[in-house]
Structure formats: structure tokens, C-alpha cells
Amino acid sequence: MLRFDQLSLRRGSKLLFSDASFSIHPGQRAGVTGANGSGKSSLFALILDQVHADSGTFSLPRDWTISHLAQETPSDPRAAIEYVLDGDAELREVELLLAEAQHTGQGTKTAELHSRLDSIDGYSARSRAARLIHGLGFRPGEEALPVAQFSGGWRMRLNLARALMCRSDLLLLDEPTNHLDLDAVIWLEEWLKSYAGTLLLISHDRDFLDAVASHIVHIEQQRVALYTGNYSAFELIRAERLASQQAAFAKQQREV
Hints:
Blueprint: E1 2-11, E2 14-24, E3 29-34, H1 40-47, E4 55-59, E5 66-68, H2 80-85, H3 89-103, H4 107-119, H5 125-135, H6 152-165, E6 170-174, H7 182-193, E7 198-202, H8 206-212, E8 215-220, E9 223-228, H9 231-255
Parallel strand pairs: 3-7, 3-8, 5-6, 6-7
Antiparallel strand pairs: 1-2, 1-4, 8-9
Helix pairs in contact: 3-4, 5-6
């Protein structure tokens, strides 16, 4: 699981949040919400070991594979499907080792690598990549076109397909519905609901969060709180909590 214990994080001189303690368990799908600049993307950067906490600790299983949606849109001359297949790093490693073993005539090594390729569903990887590409709105045949031929928005869809291609334990998605049409959003909802790993999702799309999230991690006033349920359930609980706080404050003022 992901464990955050009394975690404090700054960006420059700005305190994003402090004393955050919560856990995300395997298989949970948590939407990460809060105002712009509250620290949502910085939380992802912390998980990816791109920034470090100012105090407190964060931990996750060492053997977990993490996949995330890259925000850069490279101009790659290779076919879109090859770019997406790169998302499965182990597949690419086995393919490379297999090619070397075959080239040097290592029969036993070749057989072992074929067995390993089969164990990671390597023989169906290309069809899996094609399904991801088509599910995100590309037309049949476009998977063979160079990445560089697509616009920035369509390259972001390829980045998303590449992130989904990874057989990950933890998936981090920052605004994945940007650049998607309704059909692609609906397809992505269904894919994520069947995802077996742990999901952390930043999105301003309430309907999308309602469809996908099982929990909400909300950052507000430099505090982090974990709620059970989708975004609508979170809003209801938060509204009730705010009303209770306001009533308590009003009562206190009357007694002064």
C-alpha cells in the first residue's frame, strides 16, 4: 500500500500541505482533488521520487511497478503502436534479449526467453496496444502512422495509451480526459474500473471521478483528508462537515 505519515511538502517557500497521514490500499482508485496550486501534481512528483518531503515519510512496496501519464509530447518518427508498446518495459527488454539470443544462436537461452515472453503475454502485446489506441479514438490503421504526424492532442492520447500499456501496480493519471472526446472518456472509464492495480487520479471532471473513484484524497488549506466514496459522496460529507463547523462556531459566538 501507499503510506503517508505526517508528511509535509513545500514547493519553494510555499507550504503545500503539512502533517498528512493516510494510506491507499492495493486496488483502491483514489481521485486527488483540490484547488489549482494546492499540491496535487506535487504529490505525484513525490510518489515518483522527483521531489522529497520536507518532513514525514512516504513508502510503497519496493517491487511495485509505477506507470504515469507523461505530459511531454515528443516528436517520434516511429509508428504509434511502437511508441505505445514501449510502455511495457519488461516486454521490450525480453524482445531485445530474444533478438540477441537468436542472432548468436543460443538455443537454450532462446527457448527460455520465449517462455518468459509467453508468461508476460508478450505474444498478444501488439493486439493489446492496438485495442488501447483504438479505444482512445484512433481510426483503424492509424496505429501504423508516425507519432510525429499527429497533433499535440493526439500525441497526448498516445501518451495515455502508453501509460495504460504498462502492466503496473500503481497508475498515476494527471488530467487524463484532457483532449478526449466523449466516446474515449467512456471507454477510459470502463478500462479504469477493470484495472486491477492501485489508481491515483487527478481530474476536474466530476462525472469522470464519480464513475471511477472509490476514494477521494482532498487537499485544502494545507491539509490532506481521505474520504471513502466517489466525488459526489465526498461533496456531501464535506458539506455536512462544514455546516457542522459553522453551527459550532455560531453557537460559540452567541455564548461569548
